[in-house]
Amino acid sequence: MPPLKEPVYVQHQKTGNIEQPDDRVRTRQHDPFLMDGDFLKVTNRDNKVHVFGWNTKSYVVEPGESKFVAFEALVDVMGDPRSMESEFQRYNDGNGGQGVVMQRSFELDRLFCRYAVLGSHLDDQRDPKTGEVTAGLLSKTPRIECETLNGERVIFPASHPDMDPLPVHNIDERKITTDTVKALSKLESENSEMRESLAELNQRLDNMVREREGIEE
Fold first, then answer.
1. Coil vs helix vs strand at 176
2. Confidence bin at 26 (pLDDT 50/70/90)
3. Residue 133: strand pairing partners
4. CB neighbour class for 44 (10 Å; exposed up to 12, middle 13-18, buried from 19)
5. Ordered alpha helix ranges (H), 61-177
6. Among 17-31, 36-50, 80-94, 116-130, the least confident range
7. Which of 36, 49, 6, 8 is nearest to 143 (CA)?
8. Which of 90, 153, 165, 217 has its CA 20 to 30 A from that of 103?
9. Which of the 8 DSSP states describes residue 184?
10. What pLDDT, in 10s, does the model give residues 98-131?
11. What does pTM read for this prediction?
12. Which residues contact 169 (CB under 8 A, 6 or more apart)?
């Protein structure tokens, strides 16, 4: 068993330079835009099953398995990678999708509560008197790897609390033209078809797993 690290306590005013680009647009080519309704490929690196849920839909990912999971379901369990420290943000995809991204400190507090982390510490902590170990946030969150459909790696605050925030998609409604509306409508249609295909693929994979387990039994 690797030695325990010294306890690291979250101090919100010292979280780091977690800021969005001033113009709120993507300035680094490797940072993907992520919006509600997107799917990410999730690979389970744990030795236990992880279940992600959102909007009455459950995504069961077996150890070593890869499956497509809704972005919102991952945010619920791992925190919002678009969050920044100093302010909450509003997003608008120009096609009716609007919402708010809370501050990074709020996301971390929510995760501490979700995983019942005593003392709001990140790493495991050993009591010097009793030797009892209290698990930190990094030990309680799922060990998963995530990537976009284009193969871009995505990390989350649950495993990287000081990560730089991903860009927020925000379109100025005053500058939306007919061509923009047409392009967005086409994109939404393509995304809808892709979500249906992914749902069908996940269902087929589930059926194959159940059939295989049935044969093995």
1. coil
2. very low
3. 126
4. buried
5. 71-78, 104-114, 137-140
6. 17-31
7. 49
8. 153
9. H
10. 778 889 999 999 999 999 998 888 999 998 888 8
11. 0.65
12. 33, 35, 91, 92, 93
